[in-house]
Amino acid sequence: MNNYNNIKCDYVGTTEETKPCGTYEGYDFPAVLRWFAERVDRIILLFDAHKLEISDEFSEAIGSLRGNEDKLRVVLNKADMVGTQQLMRIYGALMWSLGKVFNTPEVLRVYIGSFWSEPLLVPDNRRLFELEEEDLFSDIQNLPHNAALRKLNDLVKRARLVRVHAYIISYLKKEMPTFRKDNKKKNLIYQLPVIFSKIQLQHHISAGDFPDCAKMQEQLLIHDFTKFKPMKPSLMAALDELLASDIAKLMPLLRQEEIDAGVQPGVQGGAFLGTRAGPFVENDPFGEVENGGEDGEDGGEMAWVVTKDKPKYDEIFYNLAPNEGKLSGTKAKDWMVSTRLPNSVLGRIWKLSDVDRDGMLDDEEFALASHLIEVKLEGHGLPPELPARLVPPSKRRQKGSDI
């Protein structure tokens, strides 16, 4: 994000206002960020806990997001690389730095965690990371659900900005004299911060409703103040009525529309598919896992790739004291968590390994889970579905008999 000339933006949309952004040199990068910020539902600022810093370029980029604080979320990533005490200090330093950049009373939501699939280096805060990840995923998944509300908030923001602009333009027009207009214009532009304060006190307007002062000063230079239109009280009264009453009447209609349409969170797939399964679901009665899904193609006589390592996996399996040849979700989870892999990864491994979907692991399923854990620890990815060569032999026979 710090290298302005090497950023490539691929913006995909279906509305007329969306436009592609390629790789350019010499363009106004903060202006590009503002353009995107006005059109997206969520903006996420990503920081690494072990190298927390806000450069001048990054600070300028963040500053261009002012006015969109309601869309902002902050992720303090790789927090497993530091201990609890140091993490608290880093969190405080981050909030102090962001407070200087945004200069607003609102506190930004910061998600603390380790949002990657590597083992946790310092597992002390594992439970905190899991809760924070769930909150972040829930926030993203609910974006389509809150789309109409966001549009209504944008309408309110624009209406309040229009009201402020009307007061500013009216003030500037009234202050213009008949003669020596150029000098007066320059003086008014120079005094614009003071004018903002006067209007704010006189009309009881929040400071957050005002436009960027420096930007407006620049834009006013090319305008003739004497040609500004005078304020129309009837239009201002209608605008005040919109903000005071009409917007409030729309809120129940939005909620009712969502209920009638049965709106559900629309962000699915990818990181939201299979990240929570089996005993890795919060408050899940271990063993009650969703039915269905592919168990892999019938492997026939194909050799099972886990066979060569099964003896060492069996030793671990029987040391965990299985009941009637199977490990409960509780026992299996305790052992799997000891690998320090994030719960999001372990949930996917559980979903792949519990082939018969009974919420427990027999010796073959446990060997499969152990194999997948080793694969992940070696830096490889996990398959979206269980390939035929990984389906345990007994599960292949069961599948064949069902057919």
TrEMBL record:
<protein>
    <recommendedName>
        <fullName>EH domain-containing protein 2</fullName>
    </recommendedName>
</protein>
<feature type="domain" description="EF-hand">
    <location>
        <begin position="341"/>
        <end position="376"/>
    </location>
</feature>
<dbReference type="InterPro" id="IPR030381">
    <property type="entry name" value="G_DYNAMIN_dom"/>
</dbReference>
<dbReference type="GO" id="GO:0055038">
    <property type="term" value="C:recycling endosome membrane"/>
</dbReference>
<feature type="region of interest" description="Disordered">
    <location>
        <begin position="382"/>
        <end position="403"/>
    </location>
</feature>
<keyword id="KW-0547">Nucleotide-binding</keyword>
<dbReference type="InterPro" id="IPR040990">
    <property type="entry name" value="DUF5600"/>
</dbReference>
<dbReference type="Pfam" id="PF18150">
    <property type="entry name" value="DUF5600"/>
</dbReference>
<keyword id="KW-0106">Calcium</keyword>
<dbReference type="InterPro" id="IPR011992">
    <property type="entry name" value="EF-hand-dom_pair"/>
</dbReference>
<dbReference type="GO" id="GO:0005525">
    <property type="term" value="F:GTP binding"/>
</dbReference>
<keyword id="KW-0479">Metal-binding</keyword>
<dbReference type="GO" id="GO:0006897">
    <property type="term" value="P:endocytosis"/>
</dbReference>
<feature type="domain" description="Dynamin-type G">
    <location>
        <begin position="1"/>
        <end position="144"/>
    </location>
</feature>
<dbReference type="Pfam" id="PF12763">
    <property type="entry name" value="EH"/>
</dbReference>
<dbReference type="GO" id="GO:0005509">
    <property type="term" value="F:calcium ion binding"/>
</dbReference>
<dbReference type="GO" id="GO:0016197">
    <property type="term" value="P:endosomal transport"/>
</dbReference>
<keyword id="KW-0067">ATP-binding</keyword>
<dbReference type="GO" id="GO:0005524">
    <property type="term" value="F:ATP binding"/>
</dbReference>
<feature type="domain" description="EH">
    <location>
        <begin position="309"/>
        <end position="397"/>
    </location>
</feature>
<dbReference type="InterPro" id="IPR000261">
    <property type="entry name" value="EH_dom"/>
</dbReference>
<dbReference type="InterPro" id="IPR002048">
    <property type="entry name" value="EF_hand_dom"/>
</dbReference>
<feature type="compositionally biased region" description="Basic residues">
    <location>
        <begin position="394"/>
        <end position="403"/>
    </location>
</feature>
<dbReference type="InterPro" id="IPR027417">
    <property type="entry name" value="P-loop_NTPase"/>
</dbReference>
<dbReference type="InterPro" id="IPR018247">
    <property type="entry name" value="EF_Hand_1_Ca_BS"/>
</dbReference>
<keyword id="KW-0597">Phosphoprotein</keyword>
<dbReference type="GO" id="GO:0005886">
    <property type="term" value="C:plasma membrane"/>
</dbReference>
